[in-house]
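Give me the fold.
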Amino acid sequence: MEGFLDDVLTNHIQWIYLVILVWTFFEGETIVIIVGALASSGQIEVDLRLIALCAFLGSFAGDQLAFYIGRFYGTKLLDKSPAMKKKAQWAFQMIEKNKTIFILSFRFIYGVRNAAPFALGIARVSPLYYFFLNMIAALVWAVAFVTGGYLVGKTLEVWIQQYKFHILGGVLLIFAAIYLYSRNKEAAIAIDQEEAR
């Protein structure tokens, strides 16, 4: 998948909006952060507002579909997937505690984004209630991660420029340490073999 993304970013940048729309339908923030960071450094030219819009639409639509799959087929599907059942059990506990906060926050919690809307559908949360809260959460998520990726890219760019000699020195020290460790290990093996004779 990384090779595909690399090809799109270098040779077919005009397709990045569609890729983000589809990718965020199924997955999450990784692509949004990467594109934001690359845009901040000038490595790619994209409209960050369109990136955020595509991320919002993909994430929102994916979670709406998962909600309705959960609502109509959820219990049957849970019986066939023990891993999903475990995640859904945790989601049911969160829904009982405070469904509003859970709907607004689940996409920010690693590992539960795909199970959460599914569980919300099984829990018979009102579709209209879920629709509006999911729309708000998806919008906040998209803007936050596009902006976050952009700011991370800017920060890294400044930091690398400012500390490039420190970074180079650190890399050289790491390589020197690895080299010395491997030499010492080889010497210790040679001594052990000599003693064994």
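The CA atoms of residues 37 and 153 lie 4 Å apart.
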